[in-house]
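Structure, all two chains, one model.
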Amino acid sequence: MKGSKIHKWQEKRLLGKIQNGDEESFGKIYDWYVNRIFKYVSLKIGSIEKAEEIVQDVFLKFWRFARDKENKVKNISAFLYKIAKSMVADHYRTTAGEGKIISLEETIIVEDETIGEEELADNIDLNLDIEKIKMALEKLPRSYQDVIIMKFMEELTNKEIAEILEKEEGHIRVLAHRALKQLRSLLKSND
Amino acid sequence: MTKLTEQLKNIKVEPSLEWQTRTRNFLLSEIRKTARQLPNQIISEQRGRVSLGLKISNQKIQAAWQTEQSGWVVNFINSFRVMRLAWRPASIVALAAIFVLGGSGILTVAARQAVPGEKLFAVKRAWEKINDYMVTDAAHKTELASAVLETRVNDLQKVLEQESRLVAVEQNTGEDKTVIAAVGEVKKQIKEVNDKFEAMKDKDKENGQKMAATALALNEKIRTYKEDLKAAKDQVADSETNKELDEALNKVEDINSEVLSVLVDKHSKGELAVAEDDLAMRVQEHLKQAEVKIDEAAGALQEVTKDENEALAVKVDEAKEVIKKANEALDKNEYSLVLTLTKDSNKILEMIFGSIYELKRDDGAVKGAATEAAAGEDAVIPAVVETKTSTTTDSGDKLLPDAEKTGTEEVEKKEEAKEIKEFQVNILQ
């Protein structure tokens, strides 16, 4: 089951069971999402050890929230990524200056973006190795990193990413386009 | 030339398996700790569910929660939760029966834990039959049969757990009659659910909303049953038992098909309070199952000889074509057509799997083949390749010769009488 898509009705049922204290249902959710959340966190912070710590806390926080009948989790995937994102942000705050991440602000002008992602990504043969991509990724602004990891590595939809990042879907399309463009230019300059 | 997006997709970052397992165990242990601390919410909820009028004081339960040995209290209350449908209308009579029979309470509690193959299981079955007897409402009877099926599936899981424990300490060869009996009981109860559901469809024609609500609840339950039966199948190595479980799963899917037909019908009449997207998702889920089965059939064909493979491959293609049409119908929101086509595809697949099984059995690749062959080969072998595709919805039972069907009913009646007799003997002891 690991890594496969979880159906909406399955989510609903598992969440219902969790509210009744069913640990096995929590276990199933853990099995489904642990690799994805780990991938996101470790790529964002670049430390396996710290990523392990954060991911563990992400799932614990998820349980505590989902267990409470007063709370309602609409989308497990989005919710887990949201917790992870917030914990990664906390990590950045506490380790300010340590990381290599360059924070750039981007201005979004939706109307200007007309080139499709496919068009941009097509026909690029940079003979890249994974380490180079990871290094380039670290140099991207955080929001670009998010969208590259979620959209192109984890294959989430724009709608899902919009929910996680609390942005408009159109905004995500633009972000993805810009992120890919910048990643390509970073990779070319490093080549 | 590789696209950048492809390269991004291929980046593998995974935690070690050892860490995954360790963290999983740690999280579950943390959860258990917090679970012990939560008293009020669950207690009030569980108390609300105890509809027998039993006065269980909050303080007592709370005290029990706070001790390490609180498990039995939770199990006890949970057992009411599962059986609440059974108890609701029959509560007064059942209570009276318990008091009249005095002393049988311990037996009843013990019987509730019994699994197929154990002597007390007959008592458990008899209680269930009494509950069913005391309920008159058709929808309620369906819910009750479904609740009993849940118990039967749980029984099977218990038996499998026991079996695996025995295998671990090398006390068992793995060929356990109890597992076969438990699977048999599951199948029997699936038939019961089907019968009750069909009876409800006849009796509750006038009350569409009630029927829709029952069908919706059953559809939800069926999803759980299927998952649990599939999990059970993963634990079973014996091919005969596996085949039995496959049959059980097919039968559950057949019931699901009928349940979905009711939902589609009620939705079209505005008697079902479910959004169209939700309904479409349920129908799609059913269709997906058929697609998975086609893939499995295609895979299974690799295990037979070339000549046989070719003939069966034609049938697989036929099923694929039917499913393609079903997908087109789903795109047009023609749910009834989707269900009919899925049923047709399942019929074809049933024949294919039957043939593969028979061919493997003839080759001696299936355990217990000789016994089954001796039991009546002619009745079992389906005319696979020659049979034309049919759009009828005959159940497996309808395909049996009348004489054999009557024989089966007689055996079931005898078993039922035997169970009640055993129960009466036990209760008087």
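DSSP finds nine helices and no strands in chain A.
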